[in-house]
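User: Second chain of the day. Same drill as before.
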Amino acid sequence: MTADSRNERAPRRRYRQDARARGAEATRRRILAATEALLREEPAAAVPIAAVAQAAGTSVPTLLRHFPTKDSLISVTLTGALTRVRADRPRVSPGDHLGAARVLAEEYERHAPLLRAAEAALPAARRGFEAAHRLHRDWLARTFAPGLSPLPPVVHRRRLAQLVAVSGPAPWRTLREAEHLGTAQAQATLAELLRALSR
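Assistant: Same format as last time:
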């Protein structure tokens, strides 16, 4: 083989490698999208790998090359979905506890199946949700900056932690499911809690 022929084949080889990489990434995205869609309909325990593969238009062996275990598939799916949801959360006017409660209520109602799946995830999977938690915390810090900023650092940190604690999906589910409040009443309760902590 001459040097010229080797040089001619190198671009074709790189093109094939790039095409394979693009195909693999497209398959991975389809798998994650299919998993998220199924988790919105069924709890994770009721979602078999075979159903995900079928919904994604691929095979079980191919799926397992991307995600060796079901836990890893669920973890990556939920981490990406919740981080995206939190990153896309609308801004509200600083200090607007009513607006903040409305935004959170709409988010929690719309994405309830994913949030329940996240709460039920194994501890190892929950560690992947830290980015989504930070986005929630940062959103609260911006929204309630007028009431938080004047506070001494130690009190500021404690008050922000209190806001995080009362405004997450778990307290919302308590209001809706354990206390049997309708959406409007649960939203009003959340607004009252946010107002009390942000003065």
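The chain has a mean pLDDT of 87.

User: Great, on to the next one.
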